[in-house]
User: Which sequence fits this backbone?
């Protein structure tokens, strides 16, 4: 199995040339590898932690100064591609990646500074049990991740939280702003399979949160995948694998808050997909969702 060109084509996998690169092992748990040997989306998300956060930013002077000034990079967009394999649960998975500090103009024309990260993961082919595949031991790509992190003062006063410029930073390269609500659009070469489906109300608990004091970003794709599997049950979803997810965040949810997932299914070639928004039950006005997502399943 190889990474799908359909999925990899959706994310900016190629960072600008000349950036520093970091490497690190990606630890895999038994439950991270599906029965057919593909590594799931959730463990792949940690590749930027292994290759960028720990390998490059843990000792970086710029990162240290930002932290001293109360400025943190808050994840605003995350894309993950999975599907390479098969691999064993004991495989030595290796992540490599890089980062760039860039600037984007939001819809109001305000500059926002962002730390963008790319990571790729490879591992030797193999199986946990039974006969080994042909080319066993050969290292192959098994996934890729791209993340955008908006610089923010999350614990500062409201008027000082946005970071549009820092006088001690050199000019930055610009990139397009990823508007969260745009993710609800139908992907290229796809067809809707039905109308919107409004899910049951969810409640976030303390176990959904992280040290940034809000619901962790990886709570959303898990909820979406479960909803998509229920939606596509008549299409054999139980034996399908989620090989692509994109998340865009407008504002966080917090422990104790209620959420409703609104989903619309589509087909894209042999893949089944769903776009979704995570909304506060009392406010589902256009563009007001807390988070937007897109997930695709393949055989």
Assistant:
């Amino acid at each position: 199995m190889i990474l799908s060109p359909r999925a990899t084509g959706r994310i900016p996998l190629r960072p600008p040339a000349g950036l520093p690169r970091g490497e690190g092992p990606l630890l895999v748990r038994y439950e991270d590898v599906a029965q057919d040997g593909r590594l799931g989306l959730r463990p792949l998300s940690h590749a930027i932690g292994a290759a960028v956060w720990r390998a490059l930013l843990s000792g970086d002077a710029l990162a240290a100064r930002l932290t001293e000034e109360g400025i943190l990079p808050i994840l605003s967009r995350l894309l993950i591609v999975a599907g390479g394999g098969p691999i064993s649960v004991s495989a030595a998975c290796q992540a490599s990646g890089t980062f760039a500090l860039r600037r984007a103009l939001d819809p109001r024309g305000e500059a926002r500074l962002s730390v963008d990260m790319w990571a790729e993961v490879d591992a030797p082919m193999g199986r946990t049990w039974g006969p080994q595949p042909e080319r066993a031991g050969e290292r192959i790509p098994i996934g890729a991740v791209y993340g955008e992190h908006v610089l923010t003062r999350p614990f500062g006063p409201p008027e000082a939280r946005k970071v549009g410029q820092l006088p001690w930073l050199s000019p930055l390269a610009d990139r397009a702003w990823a508007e969260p609500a745009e993710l609800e659009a139908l992907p290229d070469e796809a067809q809707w399979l039905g109308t919107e489906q409004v899910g049951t109300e969810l409640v976030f608990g303390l176990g959904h949160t992280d040290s940034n004091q809000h619901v962790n970003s990886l709570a959303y794709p898990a909820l979406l995948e479960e909803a998509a599997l229920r939606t596509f049950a008549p299409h054999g979803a139980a034996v399908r694998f989620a090989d692509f997810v994109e998340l865009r965040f407008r504002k966080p949810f917090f422990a104790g808050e209620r959420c409703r997932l609104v989903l619309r299914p589509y087909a894209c070639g042999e893949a089944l997909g769903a776009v979704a928004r995570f909304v506060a039950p009392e406010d589902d006005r256009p563009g007001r969702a807390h988070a937007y997502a897109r997930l695709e399943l393949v055989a």
Summary: The chain has two domains: 5-174, 180-298. The first strand starts at residue 22 and ends at 26. The chain has five helices and twelve strands. The two ends are 11 Å apart (CA to CA).
